[in-house]
Amino acid sequence: MSGFLAVTLLLAAPLLLAAAGELLLERAGSIQIGLEGTMLIGAFTAFAAARSGVGPHSALLAAAFAGLLAGAAFAVFAVAGRADPILVGTAWNLVAAGGTAFSYRLLAGATGSVLEVRTLPPLAFGLPAAVLAAFFVPVVVDVFLARTRPGLALVAAGENPLALAATGGSVVAVRTAASVAAGALGALGGALLVLTVSPTFVEGVTAGRGFLALALVVFARWKPLRLVPGALLVAGATALQYRLQAGGSRIPYAVFLALPGLLALFALAAARGRGGSPKALGTPAP
Amino acid sequence: MFPGEIHALLGENGAGKSTLVSIAAGRLVADSGEILRGGSQASYRNARDARHAGLVLVPQHDLLIGAASVADNLAFLDPAAPFFESAAARRARVGRLAQAFGLELGDADARADALPVGTRQRIEIAGALAGDPDVLILDEPTAVLSPDETAALFASLRKRADAGAAVVLITHRLAEVFAGADRLTLLARGRSVKTCRVSETTPQEIGGLLLTNTEGEKNFLEGVWGARALDSRADTPGGRSQTHSSEHAAQSAATQPLPSLVLTGFAPDEARAVRAERISLSLLPGEILVLLAIDGNGADTIARAIAGLERFSGRVEVGGVPLPLSGDPLAFRAAGGAFVPADRREEGLVAALSLSENLALPNPPGSVFLDRPAMRAHAEERLRAFGVRYASPAALAGSLSGGNQQKTVLARELAHRPGVLVAVHPTRGLDLASAAAVRSRILDACRSGTAALAVTADPDEAQLFGAPLRVVYRGRLSAALEPTTPPAALGRLMAGLEG
Fold it and tell me: What is the pTM for the complete model shown?
């Protein structure tokens, strides 16, 4: 059973990182539905860095840096440019999926052989430090939002942007900073997939985890600490799915694959409505 | 502007008051001219610079984070708040500011959006005062306050002025200016018309200036003005409406008309939380009833429930037709009801549609395709009849000023000679001229047989309808009061101190 628990924690960490970043961005009033794409960019960057010969920790850092740039790029269009964030996010997913697949082929050639990379070394309980650290991220985000001055400015940008502008803040600056942070955290989540779960890159390696992270933010009612039980629930379902598949059941494996998604769907339906969502979510900066 | 003074800025809607203070606070850029402070140039590039230089503006729009607590909101508004702050330190700030400025700020842990509008206003003002500004500018802070709350606000502003700050106050209420300000400046169409000490002028003179600098409707307005502050007669543009309603009473005795609106054991569902009494009343054709209440006491909810926008229990009949308990605005309209909501931009009009489209709602002409020529002709006729100043019927409703928007709403609602008109804060935020015009349209409709229920939070405004008043306090209605009841007595009833 400890194996099941370790796998659950391992699978929950990327979701938590990506969801915590998205939560920050949404509390600031913007929304990036291209989180899946950001995770893919992180996963590919970590893979490419690791293949170039640097260690797994440097690969993780490289992914975080790519995420910063990705977050800044999103902010240029959706925050400063005031384009509809849903459209930008949709395009983002398509471009990231195509771009990483294309880059992977450039890197790997058309050999079809699996290229492995070195994974992060375990620190405790057989889990790497980055996975364990991921569970503290929601706590940090919570303290930031609740107790610090920039945290208040961020919440104001998402609830009442006019008030932030009236008190001398810049809604564009706050949302851009949140987007950069969300990009870094999303890319780190994607990188963890390559550097822990499966030590290689395949097209669409994120397998919908970005969308699950988006759903987690709603499930958590935009409260950082509530991301933890949500992520554990979805990760637990995924771990269970691996077990059931390995157990040689007669049920088609596609049913098991759908299990975490179905669970997220039911959890969202049970949580009902959009209560707790930031008032100015998705609206352009004044 | 001098240190230690409270300076009132007056003028009609669109005179440039808000624009002027926005430029001073660095939120807008001046086209020309310069601002001097302490003898040196002081044009701020943005609101942050202005705040750092000790100049704080409390704008008309809401400044609070609705989902955050009072303590968090004050930390947000306090420019001196540290980077990291414990919950205890934030709570302590609430008590400290409440004490320092004598403002009742409520429970530190309460969510801001659950608080009455008066408390929210005080939180914003406490936040502005927290940084000890040298110049404090308040844009219509008293529009939603009760008389007592207004007095308390002026007391805390006086404290700040005595400590050496200059306070600028934008308001439409002359009585406040003469009770609390030291000097005043009158703006009209972007120009300063008069600046003087309050002690050197009279409400009559300023009132006259306000009106002569307003385009159109002058003569008729002077009549209203005469009624408003100067005499305590309850006079209305059409004449004395006390006689007006008693005439109706005599008429009804003779011809026995059916009442237009009947409430029997009525209570909006939302009002159950405050254990409101059930309401029974009826209005005959042409009768007016004014409900006077501070926001949050359930008067708006009563009006909305009658109009079919809230669930209720009991019985509502409009023109003899009972309305469904679940609330059905279409049933209300079908029975001959018309509704003027409190928020004209959000609920009264569709800002992104043209005037002619707005006026054609809810049943535009044409079978499959809209009959545009008919819509246009109808719109021009209605807009002219209601004195709306507009560029073209194709102009967007959102482009009009507040007064013209409200006249447009009335032009639509009164188009089909409704049996019952329910109007919520019909003149809130309007200048004297627009407010008087809106009021006179409602009174005109009543003269031709519409029964009207008007909700307002302003005792002076309530009296100007010249009709019976009822004060609503925590969902309960007072007995019917004469329109001549002194505002002070009305204020006490509104605050729940009497009755």
Answer: 0.74
SS3 annotation, B173-207: CHHHHHHHCCEEEEEECCEEEEEEEHHHCCHHHHH
Any CB–CB contact under 8 A between A147 and chain B?
yes
Residue B53 tokens, joined: 């230089």
From chain B residues 86-105, the ones with a CB under 8 A of any chain A CB are 86-87
Query: Tokens 């329109």 — which residue?
Result: B483
Which class would CATH give B219-336+418-494? Answer: alpha beta
Is A168 an interface residue toward B (CB < 8 Å)? yes
Give the angle subtended at the CA of A53 by the CAs of A47 and A56, to the nearest 5°: 55
Cβ neighbour number for residue B402 with a 10 Å cutoff: 17
Angle, helices A209-219/A171-192, rounded to nearest 10 degrees: 130
DSSP B479: -
ipTM: 0.87
Residue B81 near chain A (CB below 8 Å): yes
Give contacts of A165 with chain B, Cβ < 8 Å. Answer: 27, 47
How far apart, in Å, do the first and last CA atoms of chain A sit? Answer: 53
Radius of gyration in angstroms for the set of CA atoms belonging to chain B, rounded to a whole number: 24
- List CB contacts (< 8 A) between B67 and chain A: 155, 159, 276, 278-279
Distance CA A140, CA A82 (A): 29
DSSP state, residue A19: H
Chain B positions in Cβ-Cβ contact with residue A169 (cut-off 8 Å): 48
Whether the Cβ atoms of residue B112 and residue B62 lie closer than 8 Å to each other:
no
A190 touches A40 (CB < 8 A): yes
Give the C-alpha distances (Å, rounded to integers) separating A48 from A40, A100, B123, B408. 12, 10, 54, 64
- The CATH architecture annotation of domain B6-213 reads 3-Layer(aba) Sandwich (3.40)
Those residues whose C-beta lies under 8 Å from the C-beta of residue B267, and which sit 6 or more positions away, are: B276, B277, B278, B279, B312, B313, B314, B475
Domain-by-domain residue ranges, chain A?
Answer: 14-207
Residue B142 corresponds to which tokens in the numbers above?
Answer: 């008293």
Task: Indicate the DSSP class of residue B324.
Answer: P
Domain boundaries, chain B: 6-213, 219-336+418-494
> pLDDT by residue for chain A (286 residues), tens digit each?
468 899 999 999 999 999 999 999 999 999 999 999 999 999 999 999 998 889 999 999 999 999 999 999 999 999 999 999 999 999 999 999 999 999 988 888 766 667 788 888 888 888 999 999 999 999 999 999 999 999 999 999 999 999 998 888 899 999 999 999 999 999 999 999 999 978 888 888 888 899 999 999 988 889 999 999 999 988 988 888 777 777 766 777 677 777 777 777 787 777 665 567 888 898 888 8
- Contact call for residues B112 and B68 (beta carbons, < 8 A): yes
